[in-house]
Amino acid sequence: MSISLLEKYLPENTLPYLKVWFGDHSIHIKITKGRNSKLGDYRKMPDKSHQITINSTLQPPLFFFVLTHELAHLLAFENFGGRISPHGAEWKNTFKIMLLESIAIYPDDLKPIILKFSRSPKANFMASPDLVRYFHIENYEDESSYIEDLDLGEKFVYRKQTYIIEEKRKKNYLCLNLDTAKKYLFKPLARVEKLS
Fold it and tell me: pTM for the full model?
């Protein structure tokens, strides 16, 4: 996919950054249907080309953020060698530099969140409560809640199964699946449907 075909998914004025980051690399971008498990991923292919997949359902600023995350993998591996940790210091520093270079792309109310995130980039988008809240506020107008907003003993539905919150363990919540009697840990920003 050519860079220009990405334009409909991206905020304005992103192409100059992407042209620099793409450089002469052979990169295949695949736009996928929305996936619950991940927003995007990066792979180095056997023929030495690179493949990046990104969910098509992302808002333009988040699409650009995820694309930047995945390109940071490519650039970190190219600059530091294939033996580095995927989300180690080299990747974090590369991602941080890319975020700061392109900060002008983001809406004014998102810039402080990106700046804060760039101090110590996380491997998982869900590990940044500020980013998750920002994009969920924009994305969701349904009846869903964050699990951290519910009280112990409250029931909720997650992926068509009913749970009850039993206890808080450090940051996560231990919940009993009332359909299977199995217990699961949920992250505080898991989106659930509260039962009244």
Answer: 0.71
